[in-house]
Design goal:
This protein is an alpha+beta fold. Helices cover about 45% and strands about 25% of the residues. The protein has nine helices and six strands. The protein has one domain.
Length: about 160
């Protein structure tokens, strides 16, 4: 049975390293997703000073140049306007779920993935705060490995649903 492992990152560099590591460890890129507010994505989850040096994850996802691991998620990239949250960049299979659940926001899209409503609302709040949400769908035999990889690269609030 397939489960979803989620983790929250403070910046895109951490998320990039986690995505790269997941792929190196054999997780399929079609099972990995990233969600971030466009403003967080533009500054890479970094300080304003770092922002001027500039990593634009939203443009990078679209062009395949900003973050290596996320560049592999191009097939599912999407920029969405979510009421009450604003512009959101989503890469991977979660992009389709979010585009179908715009009125329910990120929490609504996560519910479609089997995430309980209260957890979905909490993860949506983290994205609202400028954090980066990473998700990986995997079978039961690999959930601990996926969670360990996310934690090793700085993910907080790592959960499996």
């Amino acid at each position: 049975m397939s489960k979803t492992v989620l983790g929250v990152f403070d910046n895109t560099m951490q998320a990039e390293k986690a995505v790269d590591d997941l792929q190196r460890q054999g997780f399929n890129k079609e099972d990995i997703s990233i969600v971030a507010r466009e403003s967080s994505a533009r500054r890479g989850g970094r300080s304003r000073g770092d922002m001027e040096a500039g990593q634009d994850i939203s443009g990078g996802i679209a062009t395949g140049s900003a973050i290596g691991g996320v560049a592999g998620l191009l097939a599912g990239v999407g920029a969405l306007a979510i009421p009450g949250l604003g512009p959101v960049v989503a890469a991977g299979p979660i992009a389709a779920a979010l585009s179908g659940a715009v009125t329910g926001g990120i929490a609504g899209g996560l519910i479609d993935w089997g995430i309980p409503e209260d957890a979905g609302q909490r993860f949506e709040q983290r994205v609202r705060e400028g954090k980066i949400l990473a998700l990986v769908r995997t079978d039961d035999s690999k959930i601990n490995e996926a969670a360990d990889i996310l934690r090793r690269h700085g993910a907080q609030e790592v959960e499996t649903h």
